[in-house]
Every structure is written in C-alpha cells, then in structure tokens.
Amino acid sequence: MNVKAIITSLFVVGILASCAPSITVKYDYDPKVNVRQFSTYRIEADRQRNADPIVGSNLNQRRISDALDQSLKARGYKPVTQGEADLVVRFFTDARDRQQIQSNNTMSPWGWGWGGWGMPNQVYSRNYEENRVVINVIDARTNDIVWQGWATGQLNNRNKERDRDQAFRETVTSIMKNFPESAGQDYGAAR
C-alpha cells in the first residue's frame, strides 16, 4: 500500500470515529390528558424488559431511578412510598449490536480518484453497541401511558464508574427535560 492510500485510510477511519452515534432523545404524549391533575409518583423498573445483563443491571437501574427521582422532585412532583401514587414512572433499557458502514468514494466514473490518484473505493465498518433507555409515565388509575420519552445511543462505552454515573444521569436528564415543568401545570403550558 502506498503512502497516499495509508493517509486516505487513516483519514476515513478518523471520520468514522468522529461520526460515532450520539445520544438521540425523543418523546411522545397524550394531548388529551390534563397533567395538572397529577402531583405524586412512584418509580419502577420494568423487570421483564430489563433483560440486558449490563445496561439492565441492578446498578444501572439504581442510577436511572435516582436520576428520575431527582428530575421529578425538581419539577414539583412528590414521591409516594406508601399508598397510591398519581403516576407510575416505569423504565426499561435494552442493547443491540449495530454496524456502521462508510465508503470513501474516491473513484470517479472515469476511473480517477482525488487528484488523479486512482485509488479504488474503500469501505470501512465499525461494530458498536446501541443502548436505549425508555421512560413510560403511566396514569395509575387507568394504567394508560400519558407520556413517554426515550434515548438511543452508546451509553455503555464509558470506562470509569463515575463516567457511567454521569452518562446515565445526563441521559435521563435529557429525556426528562421534555416532561412538564411542574405538577399543577397542563402540558401545553409547560412546553
């Protein structure tokens, strides 16, 4: 392999690394539900759906639960340990293996690449684990989801425990920033 091919290959690998998937956050809600009626909550891990041994571990479930608790308290909701809560905040996580493929597209239709180098098209791939955190906010009386938020990306690629704490806290905070600001406000006013 000549020097130009090596430099181009390193350039493409660098681009691949910089294009690594980031955390994407989305949410949905029922516009017919008046959130003003809710003021208390209880948090639950969805034990049936937290099947991944790493992202769904008890340690990560505690991280998510703690971040949810902080976020809801900051919005004026009150936790209920005994008795009925207005809202059940149920979350789960999962992980999937993904592959990112990228081509450097250096060949032109005339057989010449960048600057006439004539290098063939090279395809690079990168395997990674994509994680998802899903938070369902359920009306405890009807058992209907009234709000749902989720984040998708690479959560489990941090090496240090503190980084994982921060990754899960930031992810939950990013999801919950779309939740109504405080108890007693309807959703339209909180957006």
TrEMBL record:
Signal sequence interval, chain numbering: 1-20
Keywords linked to the UniProt accession: Signal
Domain DUF4136: 25-180
Gene3D superfamilies: 3.30.160.670
Record-given protein name: DUF4136 domain-containing protein
Organism of this sequence: Spirosoma montaniterrae
Lineage: Bacteria, Pseudomonadati, Bacteroidota, Cytophagia, Cytophagales
